[in-house]
Amino acid sequence: MAGRNHLKVAPDVHRALLHGDAVVALESTIISHGMPYPENLQTAREVEAIVRDNGAIPATIAILDGVPCIGLDDEQLERLAKLGKKAQKTARRDIPHIVATRGNGATTVSATMFFASKAGIHVFVTGGIGGVHRHGEKTMDISSDLTELGRTPVAVVSAGVKSILDIPRTLEFLETQGVTIAAYKTHEFPAFFTESSGCKVPCRLDSPEDCARLINANLNLGLGSGMLITVPIPKDYSASGYMIESAIQTALEEAKNMNVIGNDVTPFLLAKVNELTRGASLAANIALVKNNALLGAKIAVAFASLKRGFARSAL
After folding, report:
1. Which residue in the list 89, 148, 162, 188 is annotated as catalytic?
2. Rounded to an integer, what is the distance from CA 177 to the centroid of its chain?
3. Active site residue 162
4. What is residue 190's DSSP assignment?
5. Nearest to 165 by CA among 191, 143, 133, 137
6. Which residues lie in coiled coils (predicted)?
7. End-to-end CA distance of the chain
């Protein structure tokens, strides 16, 4: 493997970056904390396959034995899947500790963005980003994903944010951070399990090429901030989204009654919602991640093609 700024870069990722080919970063928290084994391993393999089948190289990011890894082989994917919650959920703030103690870390959106940017990867696919939690104006419980988007020039392809969060305040916070927010083939900001949150976005994109041009403009201008490209959940799963929303409201009330707070809130809510929906939320989660990976790969390919075109025209 090749090293870059104290990172361990997988050979295929290194070659792709060296030649200006398409690369898509993938987080690892969804593997270790997002779903149980062996569904998590199967999903990770399938998501990587979707990226490859659509012309890009997947780079799943994690910290293993204290080493930040940009791209995992199948043995490493399986190890991470079996570790599950024994791998620490790793945001930006946790990176020095995990590295210093030679621990294992599953990267969240903020940590994955950080490492992707260090490696020179500009497109990152995830399920949904974190946001401002409900009553965040009092608790100050705001995901580091949002501040990372404000300072790291990576395009994040996601299904928006979960409705367990305060979506209007999340969008206001992103505006304050100077983050470009776009939606794919719609003007509606999606709410993860449902196609719309009732909030509008200022930027609509209708093709991977549109997305690539937006990313390129952001990089060329040196704005230093990331961008959020949101993709509605596939229509085949959106009907069940409203049932899931009802379960979310029940789970929120239960979390409040049990005084579940801080980092424990999201895992508690997702587990409870999956239980209440008898697995429907997990199936929808997997479907939207795969859908995001499909578009993310196409965006990465379009971006690589755009950059090669500019390079040829400069000769």
Report:
1. 162
2. 18
3. yes
4. P
5. 133
6. none
7. 32
